[in-house]
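Q: Entry one of two.
A:
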Amino acid sequence: LRINQKPCEKGGWYGRRHHIRKRVGVKGIGGQDARENLPHESIRTHGLGHPPGRGLVERGVSVGEGALDAGITGLDLLLDSRSKAVQVADLAFGHSTFRFAGPMGRFQKLSDLQGLRVATAYPHLVEDYLQRQQINVHLVQLDGAVESAVQLGVADAVADVVSTGTTLRLAGLEIFGEVMLESSAQLIAAPGSSAKTQTILQRLRGVVVARQYVIFDYDCPVELVEAAAEITPGIESPTVSPTKDAGWVAVRALVERGLTNQKMDELYQLGARAILVSAIHAARI
């Protein structure tokens, strides 16, 4: 499977998708990374959360029109493109939240936007959402620095990606109304091509699992195995193996990455020793 990938303006997502592409063992078109190539399929990755502004091909339209078999893009860009591409799977990374924001104290609810100007880099996404809410606005499309639109006098409010809200506050804006969209990375396919994505889907899920879990290996007194298994139950069950010392066993289990230190402390207090933690490069669960 080949990935044709143009650099994205936001280096964080570009680095993440480049890393994932290499981890699933696929090759970049044009000689980028001589990796394993899955025949007869092509895939393009797109930026999440921040539109690169490089035309429709960067917003999932190539996949929707069948020019590419599959792609990785953000739900935000997919919806904004109004592409015919099919959502195959949520890849559970690249999360972003879309909110409305306006001058401090001016807006309380979405209906306050009626008839006003709203700046955004996602005009179709915002338009479709507001139409469902039966709110009519004048959309002002911008490619970047959306939070400055109100200060510049080109809009009354903005609709944009929000993380901590610090950038909006520095621009004199506050969030109001409901969350417009919770976005994340999606594997998409051209109409009728979903079956071609199953191999790459399994690989992508393997990479996602590898990011979520680590491997615990430790020695445990035989009489404490049941208690240790309560601390590290693994996915189905921990693996317990005999050691040279009949009074001890070796235990291996998957543990959520975010619980690493907590679980190590609990195991050590229980009586486990030689506790080692290893990263996972790929997995099939």
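Q: Entry two of two.
A:
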Amino acid sequence: MRNAECGMRNDGGVRFSARSAEGSVAPGFSRGYARIPNDFAPHSGAGNGHPSCAAMRRDENLSFGQPPAEAGGYRSFAATRRGSARASDLRIDGRFVRTISAIVLSLLLSPLAFAATLRVNGSTTVNAVATEAAEVLRAEKKMAITVDTQGGSSGGISGVADHSIELGMSSKPISDDDRKKFSGVNFVSTMVGQDAVALVVSKDVWEGGVKSLSRQQARDIYEGKITNWKQVGGPDRRIVFFNKEPGRGTWEVFAHWLYGDPKKAPATSHREVGGNEEGRTKVASTKGAITQLSFAWAEGDARIHALGAKLDDGRVIVPSSSTIADHSYPMSRPLLFVTDGAPKGEAKVFLDFVLSPRGQSLVKKHGYLPLPIGPGAAGAK
């Protein structure tokens, strides 16, 4: 690309950059500059003392600005704010004007031209459903959506609180501590499905005879008081505990079952894992391993096995669709999207889709329990 440099004053324009192939113009960062293809030279302008603008050199910018008053009123680009400009009295080649007009028109007609991006972040458990729902809405409604899992459920809740996102994903209920910490936020939770936290073990532990754990046994393992599987009827093998990062929804549900209040859980030195995929892979590849995992991520994987929960009365409740639905399994939990106030705008469109029959089919597809369908079913459409 060649560029011409004008000797106009730099007190009214904005910076523009252009692609030489199309001659397109896009806003930049400061003022008074523009680039144009070499075959679209500006009119030199007539007027007392007006600069020529005819010099063409490579790798320089064509300076458009407010010319001196004695230039006879000739103006090039004037801006009202960064990134906006008007071409008033700018006399350039007609093809350039047509090119720019076509580009601007195509942008204005684009469905995404003025669409705000819906930002979704939080739980890796809810993420699978959110990601696929976002794909459908991008394709069908041309929505701009980003989905991330930074910080897990706690990251989703804090993101809603500081307005860095519009939708938080959480696999744990909003706690009183959350509401106290973010006292100015009106957290509204929308349940889209159900899941459970399972204690999953590696295949060698399962085949060695460990099928369930009581709450006390699980607590003693977590606190390091039980260190070998033979102490709970299993093989003579050291226990390797992969602990979910504290603050993750999965960890909080587990800690609530053990201690009644996650704040009562002691600090441990267990190796930590983040998302469900990482936890599942670690247990599957490590003998003597155990971790807390979304039940949906444990089903159908022969390398790992979900343990039953032995209740105080001696009954063993295994995680399943029925025990999750009736909450007899003690670590059942809701899958939530969280907003600040009632969902509105793009967030409401997203949630309406997830609550619809199509959206609920995605919940079921990813191994979670969809909401009940029928008269009076909360959250169902």
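A: Comment on entry two: Residues 1-93, 374-381 have pLDDT under 50 and may be disordered. The two ends are 57 Å apart (CA to CA).
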